Amino acid sequence: MIRPATADDVPAIHTMIRELADYEKALHEAKATEEQLREVLFGDHPAAFAHMAVDDATDEPVGFALWFRNFSTWTGTHGIYLEDLYVRPAARGGGHGKALLTELARICTERGYHRFEWSVLDWNEPSIGFYKSLGAEPMDGWTVYRLSGEPLRDLAAPAPRPN
To answer: Which residues are catalytic?
Structure first.
């Protein structure tokens, strides 16, 4: 079963984010707290959204999708950017990942969004194969850039004023 996440799901989402970070060999980078997730998902001004994959027999969360709206100046419409998709190893192969993606695709079409996008690590062949089987295409010719840490702070610092 796929359903929108609730505030009660925050501990499970937090745990699965850490499981995903560990799988991606970057656990040391997973610094988000439950409090931060609760605020971004369920605060006064939610900036992101989540859906849960729940085991039908046990009602236990087995996966999640965390996403936010983006915007295309070319189409003039919003889209969905999937930040994280994760299904616990024991539940893989049960259709949960496809069901999560199907729900987000449904939201896109229902709301008139023209794009549904995400990133995948180059070495993650199982996921790449899965996405391609759904008809997703890599965006050849595009490279993601990230500014963080000290370079971000340096760029944000006010430039010295000429005398």
So the answer is: 131
